[in-house]
Amino acid sequence: MDQLILATECDVVNEVICAPDDVKELFEFTEVIFSIGPIGVTKTIFLFFLAAFVVVGLLYFGLRKRRMVPSKFGVVIESLLDFVKNDIAKDIIGPEGARYVPYLTAIFLFILVGNLFEVTPLINFPITARMAIPAFLAIVTYVIFVFVGFGRNKFRFLFDTVWPKHVPIGLRWLVGIIELVSIFLLRPFTLAVRLFANMVAGHLMLTLLLGSGVIFLTSFPEIGAKALVGIPWFVLGLAIYLFEIVVSVLQAYIFTLLSAVYIQSSVHFEH
Description:
Elements: E1 32-36, E2 39-42, H1 43-63, H2 72-93, H3 101-116, H4 132-153, H5 156-162, H6 172-218, H7 220-223, H8 230-267
Antiparallel strand pairs: 1-2
Helix pairs in contact: 1-2, 1-3, 2-3, 2-8, 3-8, 4-6, 4-8, 5-6, 6-8
């Protein structure tokens, strides 16, 4: 069982699970599927823009016609917007959270759609399993809360972070260094890595369990009863498949919630 990663070509007679030459092939799609002028569009780029268009479509078709009795689709979209507005923006940031609702709604829906690509037939790849995308979203959040912090509190935002007055004077330098590193260096990194790592782990598990299960079952003529080992693998993969739907929603919520928390720490810096 020293072979752990599924490959596209597998010798099921001699190897239990085969390994690809490079594990990155599960996450990197460098092949250009079409070009727009000099720009080559890979699968990842295509899925990135597809997720954006899906979000725009959901909002447009869900909100374009306000009715006394909204459709079921309209109710779902309005419920999502109310959830972000009331349960995240206003509950975390406060009354001033209304101005950040468009951004929080956009990242919540974009991450949710991008995560659910993992369990979407014929796609089966979460775009958030590419570090560049969570990193980009985390940097946007970082820029917002830093600009808000300096805009509302001027240089007191930096000075009170480095020299926190609520801490005993003998410990201020130590706490100040910790806060400086935490707020201005670690926040965007941890925000991105949390989303990235969870989606990578889920993608690997689904690829391993479902893929290897299919390979064993379809190899029954060659290996006989040994192929039955694919049944528990495939069943466990289906369980992970359902679990990943929950993870996809949860990770979109956590990223949006933490973004709101970071913005709140700048809006109400005095607390």
